[in-house]
């Protein structure tokens, strides 16, 4: 499944790494792509949206589902 999120507070490579680590803790096979300029993250994973969103929030980044 493709998940597209708006992520608040993501401003550097360290932020991207933290988000990627949080997602991959749920699904090691997940593909995570971040666009720092837009503040958006795309996740390709078999895991549902809610746990991914929660994991990113627990890593310190508020986020909103933008749809697939």
TrEMBL record:
PROSITE patterns: HMA_1, HMA_2. Residues 1-64 form the HMA domain. It comes from the Bacteria. It holds the Pfam family HMA. GO terms for molecular function: metal ion binding. Transmembrane segments: none annotated. Keywords: Metal-binding. InterPro entries: Heavy-metal-associated_CS, HMA_dom, HMA_dom_sf. This is HMA domain-containing protein. It comes from Marinobacterium lacunae.
């Amino acid at each position: 499944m493709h998940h597209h999120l708006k992520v608040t507070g993501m401003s550097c490579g360290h932020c991207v790494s933290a988000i990627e680590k949080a997602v991959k803790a749920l699904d090691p096979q997940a593909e995570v792509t971040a666009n720092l300029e837009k503040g958006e993250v795309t996740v390709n994973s078999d895991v549902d949206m809610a746990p991914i969103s929660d994991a990113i929030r627990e890593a310190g980044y508020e986020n909103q589902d933008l749809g697939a």
